[in-house]
Amino acid sequence: MNPLDFKQLRKNLKKDTTGFKPVKLAILGDTSTQTLIRAIKGYGIEYGLDVDLYEADYDQIDLQVFNPESDLYQHDSDQVFLYKSSIKLLTKYYKKSIEEKAHFADSVIEKLEEYIAVLSGRLKANIIIANFIELPDMVFNNYGNKVPHSWIFQIRKLNFKLMELAAAHENVFICDLSSVNNQLGRRESFDPQMYIRTAIASNLKFQPYIAQNLMDIIKTSVGKFKKCLILDLDNTTWGGIIGDDGVEGIQIGSLGAGKAFTELQLWAKNLKDRGIILCICSKNTDHIAREPFKSHPDMVLRLEDIAVFVANWENKADNIRHIQAVLNIGFDSMVFLDDNPFERNLVRQELSEVTVPELPEDPAEYIPYLQQFNLFETTSYSGLDKDRTKQYQVEAKRKKAQTSFASVGDYLKNLNMTAIVSPFDTFHTPRIAQLTQRSNQFNLRTIRYSEKDIKDLIESPNHITMYISLEDKYGDYGLISLIVLEKQGEDQLFIDTWIMSCRVLKRDVEKFVLNEIVKIGVAENRSVIVGERLPTPKNVLVENHYKDLGFTEKDNKWFLAVNNYEAQANFIDKKEPVLG
Amino acid sequence: MQRAEILGKLKDILEEVLDLEDLAVTEETTANDIEDWDSIMHVEIIVAIEEEFDVKFKTAEIVKFKNLSDMITGILDKTA
After folding, report:
1. A541-554 per-position pLDDT tens digit
2. How close is the nearest chain A Cα to the Cα of B80, in Å?
3. Please, are residues B34 and B15 in contact by the beta-carbon 8 Å criterion?
4. Hey, is the C-beta of A14 within 8 angstroms of any chain B C-beta?
5. How many domains does chain B have?
6. ipTM for the whole predicted complex goes beyond 0.90
7. Which of A290, A509, A512, B68 has the lowest tally of Cβ within 10 angstroms?
């Protein structure tokens, strides 16, 4: 949360990094970065990343970028950090003529554009640019805001143009040091003695902040980021206790400290619109806890904003486990907010991967406190993200039903599952190709197909394909399983590809699919179905797939005779495909 | 604080920052006596000392430190 200090970062450097995700990072700076790289490595280890770091000698950015033989390209980095300091820039600026000063920001941006073009041509890397601390030089003072060639005018313009640059290039990110400086102040970010003495442009105390922001961006870009915010209710989402105070008595809006809670809800709502999943985890009676969401006029959050709503008297760690099961995301992608230290510690203890901020006692401090951290760093944003909540709400209803049935069989029966089985078609080709490229867990041979490959398979006389889409009473899962069969020899049917979405695990879909495969075997006059699992680190899930389905093994292949096959029992009804 | 006590704390700081164990130091020890004590580590060492003793050195003072004895005197001057 608060950045680690150098002492802790040094400790991290001694830790064992086996199994950590490797990151190849290059740092190009215009001032000495030797202490900074230690902080960066230490932060990498904090985040479970093994940083292979290349540090250019300082002030060598041009050489490193433009020379195709440079060490930078030998290193073959996947992340490049460009770190130019304001103080150095200011020295350069002072030496310019007034005309040049008026175009100073433009000239810096032009240079950066050149870097981006060359780097992007030679490396497949994210380019992370540190923006500039807007240090006032007090030559024009307040009036500088009216003078286009003044330093303050140019440095602010530069930061603005950097954002435009990042918006225009998918692989360019900004490490927002200016915002960090705004929070901490100039004295914390810059140590004049240090700069004069050592050519290090930032206060040693500030460097962990730089490292943290940089590594936040990098860890997010390699897939480690927060997806879900779990909120407690009483004294977190509103002031007071709903069970005691009632809907009229809780503080929200203009009542009591209500404004602080309104702010928190507005923040949460904006996160939700950005794609963060909101959940509730509260010790309350369910219908009482839901009441404010339905009827309180000042509530910002409504039931439709909440993906999973858990209000009961069970322990919160178990409830978060339930939320995790519904959402099927990692614990390390969850943030839990609760005003009660007991609950926070319980969750920290039981689920150490969940991020649990130490909320201040005074609700007025909640938002300023939370906004100090990059809790919800992201390196992408898609308009579709905001529709996710609905999907999860449907899933939550399913899970709830599951707990109320005596046996799994009863539950599955009650789901009223229907499936459509169809050969691959051109309409679904993009989705099919995407599934073959993305599925890792329930994927027996992990063969990746492009759209072109899929079209070839459709035409191939030696292959038989099918996709399966599934629906139940709660909603439509869409296309969830793929099969590619290859006719081999005179009488064999080889399962080239068997993929299934993990969202439909434990529904006996695989049994249903095997029945369909055998039907094809019969229709094609094939006597043996042959399966194979090519092991990868990610497909352990299907280790016993063929064994469980009654195949027998020989030389790492699995065989099933068609003639005495008994159809596997399941609760899925086959439905005829409809066009469109 | 006594000089010996400060020397002991300096030894701890050096061991911590330089990641060394059982460092043998006297007041006469200089950066040249300790292999890993280079100009970059020096920056971290000075900052660690300033934090430990809650003092702030001027650039002119830092460049005059020739050995640990000078540092101890510097610290004593500020904390007295």
Report:
1. 899 999 999 999 99
2. 23
3. no
4. yes
5. 1
6. no
7. A290
